[in-house]
Structure prediction request, 87 residues.
Amino acid sequence: MTDKAKFEGKCSRCGKAHYSNRKGEIVVCDCWRYCPMCGAEMQSYTPDLAPNTYGMDDKRDLRILMVCTNHSPPFYSSQKPVEVMVE
Prediction:
């Protein structure tokens, strides 16, 4: 006998369905890891300089999280993980 998931939630970014046996569970969608241009899994971005070097208006936030080097120039993504509420 196979247990089937009873509850479903959809990612607000990609529309992928996630399932769980428990209502109210939070699942992290993996769509933020994939390049929207080619679908390949992206690599974590490591800047050549210290992150506090990049900044404007006294803000030192480096917004790039992932990079896909399958393109020229590379695709830089600032998409953060998306939490999906299973209901």
